[in-house]
């Protein structure tokens, strides 16, 4: 007769994480009646993540996107600058490859609104041509390296695309709708256990 007692060490993970990531990238502005054009992006998001289990969590927070690019519409050639405030609601996944390296992914939905919109034409500047809220879906994947106990950093790739469309302000001389498609970025990600 044999008696065996096995004991495994259970890893404890924090219930809450603060996740911050940002990057640079590009996207396409898709218009209904005007020509499409490309935009460069600088973006950043800060999320509060609640870990439901060791691998799955939910998160929300705020994001800020700065978009710039050149294009053409009924009023002529322009340089476009737009700032967006974004509120995402995401499902997060975390899986460890080794003791120090882990894989991070998120996907979900967002709502964003224009906080600054400026078109510079040859003969002047127009602001707030487009307005309102828009909704879409996003995803992100990253590779994290644990630098200190409870602090990881790594690289992140993300993408998003709008479902709805921003509408023009009727007083601006353009009647159109537009959405941002295939807004992709690559940058850094930081995760802090709380």
Automatic annotation (TrEMBL):
Q: Which InterPro entries match?
A: OMP/PagP_B-barrel
Listed name of the protein: Outer membrane protein beta-barrel domain-containing protein
Q: Which top-level group of life is the source organism from? A: Bacteria
